[in-house]
Structures are given as structure tokens and as C-alpha cells.
Write a structure and sequence with these properties.
Length: 269
Amino acid sequence: MITVELAQLLDRATANSEDPFQLPLAVSPWPVTLIVTGYLLFVLKLGRLFMANRAPYDLRTVLRVYNLLQIVYNGTLFMLAIYVIFVVRPYDLNCITVLPQDSPFKTVERVLSYAYYINKYFDLLDTIFIVLRKSYKQISTLHLLHHMYMPITGYCVIRFSGYGGHLIVAGVLNLFVHVVMYSYYYISSQIPPARRRFWWKEYITLLQMLQFVIVFAHTIWTQMQPKCEVPKELTYMSLFAATALFLMFANFYTHAYILAKTKKKQLND
């Protein structure tokens, strides 16, 4: 029902125009600019001032609900995207271009792409919750850059390239990673901190790194197709983003797990 209603909204929004971008948060750069700026102000300054003389909020129930909603949301989009890509098959996987406006699957493409984009704003709540719990050590440079990058890039891709297209692969991989990640958060929230030891925590970071390798490889493969009409600017951006994010996550993994294990072993010897 929700998908049908969203599809009807999208059809109404584009019925009188060939411009496919006339949707909330995808029309102008001002909404994403104001939201991301407000996010940074709250996380880095205002939120900390607000919490300065307050005890950390107990958000366990809120986080459980939030994590469950994220699992369902990302999981639903992932399964729908897999169905469209491999069952409906409107794309050539060697060269995934944005579907034309008269394609019978255009509304589906818009629904999935827009729903994915909107969730990047809800992801910002991760950091808001961290501030309200006064767990400031969790707010790393990587954390902030990643959360800023996703809505800004999402807007730019939709605004200048269109819904869907080449970055569908990156989106599908990201949906799967988020299902795993929020499942971990939910399960860990059900266990007392003293017993909260999961062997698979570090593998979530490795999974995130793997997605960037796949995105990089798929983009290179796309560039090798002689008649592919994917915009070169989009492939260059994809290569740069995949490389930069891989290096940042690799740096985090090295310090959080490899060096930390080495230091712990040295202390125990």
C-alpha cells in the first residue's frame, strides 16, 4: 500500500513536467544544505551545550524501535531492488543507465531510488542519539563524513543524473550492509554490556570495505563497455567515492581492530 501511494505521489509530481526531480528534498539544494548544516551544528556544538549539565538520556527503547524500523526499511528496499534487477530485469548489468521517462518500470525506479535517498536523512538520527547519550567518542571523522556524504551525494545524483542508473549497484550493496549493521545494533541492545561480545562486529567493517571494492570493480567494468552511455562524470565520481571511503574504512579497521589487538597482546605478554 505504501509503495502504491508513493508511486502515485511520484506520478502526480511528474505528470505535468518532463523534469523527474520535482519531489521533496530533491528539487533545490537548500533543504539538504540546511539539514546537513543543522546536523553538524547540533552534533558538534549545540547538542553538546544542551547536554552539558544533563545526564545521558536512556534511549534503549527508542534505539530498539529505530533499529527494527531500519532493518525492515532497508530489508524491504533490498528485496524489492533484487526482484526488479534480477526478475523484472529492466537493466543491462554491464551498463546500467537511467530508464527513459516512457519506460513501464520508470515509476518503480523512482520509488526505490527516492525511498533510498530519503532514508539517508533518517540515518542522521544515529549521531543525534549518540549526542543525547553523551557517547561522544563514537563520533569519529569517518562517522561524520559518511553521514554527510550520503544525503549530499544522493541529492546531486538525483538532481543531475536522475533516479536509478549506474549507482543502483552501490545502493543495493549499501542496503544489504545496513540490514546487517542494524541487526547487529538491535541484537547487541538486547544483551547487557558486560556480555556484549560479538565475533562478527569487526566483519561488518570488512563487509563495508567489500562493498566499495565491488562498486569500484563494477564501475571499471562499466567504463570498459564501448557503447555504454553512463555519464563519465558519474563513473569518475563513483571511482573517487569508492576509493576514498575504502581508504577511510580501512584506516578505521586498522586502528580499531588490528592495532588494538596487537597492543592488547603486548600488554598481556
